[in-house]
Each structure stands twice: as C-alpha cells, then as structure tokens.
Design goal:
The structure is a single chain. The protein is 85% helix and 0% strand. The chain is mainly alpha-helical.
Length: 180
C-alpha cells in the first residue's frame, strides 16, 4: 500500500507539472499566431514609439501570464514530487532494493533538484523582471532611446522566461524516463 501511494503522488505531481509546461510550450505559438493575425490595439500601451507593435507586446503579456501560472503549478507539483521521491528512497532503503533501483532513484532525484532549481530561479528572478519589463513598456513615454531600451529588456526577459519553462519540460521528460 505505501508503494502505491508513493507512486500515485509521484505521477500526479509529474503529470501536473509536465502537463502545464507542455501546454505552455504547445499553446503559445498558436496564441501568438492568432494575436498577430488579429493585430490588436492595446489602449494601455501609451507610447507612440510602439505604434504597430501592439501584437508583439500582447504576446509578451501572454508569455508572462501563462509562465506565472505554469511556475506556480510547478511549485506545488515540485512539493508533491519531493515527498514522493523521499518516500521512494525510504521504501528502497527499507526493502533493500537492487543497485539499479538506487541508480534510477539517484537520477530521478538529481533531475527533480535540477527542475526545482530552474523553477525557483524562474519564480524569484526571471518572472519578477519580466513583469517589471512589461509594466515599464506599457507605461513608456515617447523618448525613442528609452523605449528601445525597454523594448530590448522586455524581449530578453520574456525569451528567458520561455526558455526556463522549456528547460523544465526537458528535465521533467527525463523524470518520466526514470520514474517507473
């Protein structure tokens, strides 16, 4: 019974986190295409220097919003996975598992720690910078040099935020391989 409970918690955590990141990676290109196709106007975008770039700014806002949700789901799922991995270690030590089981557990633990480190970095460093870059761009004045700096910062932080989620997906796929 404890083995089954640990496995259930492990797979629920991994499925929730992996599913959220997969939706992010798959859905964003489709959302971007639709936003670009409709070429929206954002009333909150104040700078005349950003005329014609409303779709790109809205795409960045979507990245920021969706990444925040994915990172929050990842935080909860990482806790579940952490408890499950600790439970698996306890069961392996109690039952005297073979060396292959310890290797798989070690790899799964290392992957979880890596995914958690990327998650924490994304939540505490990149996401706040991306949100700040979004707010700064939305309220920018019409100084061309200032707007260009804000535009570059906005693009860089949102690329980094997307990369963080993509890295998490790759690490979580590794956990699927070593999770059985």
């Amino acid at each position: 019974m404890p083995e089954q409970l640990v496995q259930i918690v492990y797979w629920i955590g991994l499925t929730a986190w992996g599913g959220a990141t997969l939706v992010f990676v798959v859905a964003l290109p489709a959302l971007f295409a639709e936003v670009n196709r409709h070429d929206p106007t954002m009333p909150r975008l104040l700078s005349a220097e950003l005329a014609g770039e409303h779709a790109g700014v809205l795409n960045g806002v979507l990245v920021d919003t969706l990444a925040h949700v994915v990172l929050r789901i990842g935080g909860f799922a990482a806790l579940l996975l952490g408890f499950a991995v600790l439970g698996r270690w306890g069961l392996a030590l109690r039952t005297g598992a073979d060396s292959g089981a310890y290797i798989r557990l070690g790899v799964a633990t290392a992957l979880l720690l890596g995914a958690a480190a990327v998650l924490i970095y994304g939540l505490l460093r990149v996401r706040p910078r991306a949100a700040g870059a979004t707010d700064a761009l939305l309220t920018a004045n019409d100084d061309p040099e200032h707007v260009e700096t804000l535009r570059n910062n906005f693009a860089a932080t949102h690329r980094e935020l997307t990369t963080i989620v993509q890295i998490q997906l790759l690490v979580l796929l590794g956990m699927v391989l070593f999770g059985g």
